[in-house]
Design a protein that fits this description.
The chain contains 16 helices and 15 strands. The chain has 435 residues and is an alpha/beta fold. A five-stranded parallel sheet has the order 13-12-11-14-15. The chain is globular, with a radius of gyration of 21 Å. The relative contact order is 0.13.
Length: 435
Amino acid sequence: MHEVTSPQAFDGLRVAGRQVRRPDLTAATMDHNVPTDPDDMEIRDPVSRKQIETLRENCKEFGIKLFALENNDHGVIHVVMPEHGIIQPGMTVVCGDSHTATHGAFGALAFGIGTSEIEHVLATQTLPQNKPKTMEIRLTGQPDDSIAAKDLILYIIREIGTSGGTGYAIEYTGEAVQNTSMEERMTLCNMAIEAGARSGLVAPDQTTYDYLRGLPYSPSEEELDKKIAEWEELKTDSPAAYDRKVELPVDGLAPQVSWGTNPAMTVDVNDTVPDPSNLKRQEERQEAQRALEYMGLKPGEPITGIEVDTVFIGSCTNGRLEDLRQAAEVVEGKTVANNIRAMVVPGSQLVKKRAEKEGLDEIFLEAGFQWRNSGCSMCLAMNPDRLEAGERCASTSNRNFEGRMGTGGRTHLVSPRTAAATALAGHFVDIRKLQ
């Protein structure tokens, strides 16, 4: 849990005279309202400050593990929990946050819930659910090294739409998925919700087990082999029957850039802004036209000709160490374009410490990026990091809705590599040509 969706759940427990049934299976962190400027961490907004204080008090009262701001071990919840080994294969994981689907990368059933459901879980450690339908998204072939998991998931959503996964639990399969790291799998599962799905998951394998080895809350070395034998049984049978199957080739896939106001409004970086008149359905044409007006774009405009004001690298989608390494490789020895505000926000304080140990902070700072503390930051306008009306941002976050990053702000979803290259050029860049 985090500070925004949990306070009412604890109030409900108090009113009913109930305790938290399994505090040992509950963990919390502070992320949505947290400032990220290392020189100014004061929380000035009274509502934000109250939510932070309330989470601290609730966790102390009910004996819940808290990754706290004052302990400097906080971070984005979907980054903090996996990196400590709290999330493991076969678990059912819930949180009052839609991007809880992230944790399906471990072969867990993970999904977001509402505040009243949080109270129910805290009190009973159970939750009644309707069984979702099953969908396989199989990625065939293997993209080149310029393509990140963010490009893959934007391509998937572009193909099946933002409602393509509604009512389903998605399993990602195929060669391109098997070859991904745990960080990349978390990116894929994180944005399953953007395709309308209840959850997304990847079957656990050796990549999963290697990631979990030695983490604070992972099984001990003595227990791990026994656990792995159990986790091996979680894999989907072959052949298996799904309610729906989608097969998408990713050989030769280009880096992806969103142009509109939902993640399905995405095209190849070397393409142009679509013309709404070419869409089949009137509803789609109207939605696309509105998106163009909000985004300040014209049909036929080359994506690489679109200039930005801000570049944001971070969030629960792309704020992990591997994401920062990819961005640093692009910017090392180069300089951010004039008039570009570029910021890197590690997904957790642990990610920040590890990045600094590798010297990534120096690479970003020398290039002209801001190097900040962890938090949800610019992903959503609930803290000081936000866009002004009309500002255009290349963002590694997961949502490009109207006003998501600040009233009137314009968001383009991209991978860390594309975001980094965009910061250098001041406009979108085909990273393949830069390489």
